[in-house]
Amino acid sequence: MSKKLIYSDYDIFASIYNKHWGHYAEHSYLLLEKLILQYAPPHSHILNLCCGTGHLTKKLIENHFVVTGIDGSAQMIEYARQNAPDAAFIVDDARYFNMLSLLAIA
């Protein structure tokens, strides 16, 4: 994880995003399934970078994937934890995210 103090402009409209836009992410699952997920065995671990409010994360979990979501907005992550309680979530800035730090957490 980055050691920078994270402030996200997305915090301001996280509730609006969750209510009106987050569900769009569920539709992207169908495209991901055709392009990538059909080749992943069940229970594969997926890193959902910039996971937003967790709607895609929820869909991935429903389809037997293990998911870690990362987003720079603490408010988005709060909604993500409500929408997909079986996932792990990290507040971090994707621009500075270090994959090795995720391995240390696991």
UniProtKB/TrEMBL annotation:
Gene3D superfamilies associated with the record: Vaccinia Virus protein VP39
Origin superkingdom: Bacteria
Residues of the Methyltransferase domain: 46-97
InterPro entries linked: Methyltransf_25, SAM-dependent_MTases_sf
Record's protein name: Trans-aconitate 2-methyltransferase
Species of the source: Bacillus paranthracis
